[in-house]
Amino acid sequence: MTWARLKTYFETSLAGLTQPTRSDWIFALRTVSAGMIALLVAYALKLDHPQWAMMTVFIVAQPVAGMVLAKGFYRLLGTLAGGIAAVGITTAFGTGPWILVTVLAVWIGICTFVSSLLRNPEAYGAALAGYTAMIIGLPAFGQPHLVVDLAVARCAEIVLGIVCAGLTSRLILPKLASDAIISRLKRCILDLATYAGGAFSGGDRATLIGLHRKLVADTQTLGEMRAYARLEAASFAPRAHPVRRTIGQLLSALSAARALYSHAAPKNAALIPVRSELQALVSELAAKPGALDDTSPWLARLDAISIRARQIPDASTEQGEDRVGTITRLTIAADFAEALKQVLRGLDALRAPVSRRRGPGSRQPALVVHRDYPGAARNAIRAALATLLVAAFWLTTKWSEAAGTVILVAVVSSLFAARPDPVQVSWGFFKGTLLALPFAFLVGQIALPALPGFGWFMLFVVLIMVPAALAMANPRYVGVATAFAINFLAFLSPHQAMTYDPGPFFAGSASILVGILLAIGVFIVVFPADPWLAADRIVRAMREDLARLCLHERLPRRSAFESLAYDRVNQLMPLVQNSGRKGEAVLGGGVASVTVGLEILRLRNASQNHAIPSEMTLSIANFLRGLARELLFRASGDPQTATIAVARQYAAGIAQRDATGDMLQIAASLRIIAAAMEDFPDFFARDKT
Question: Which first-to-last residue range defines the signal peptide (predicted)?
Answer without folding.
Answer: none
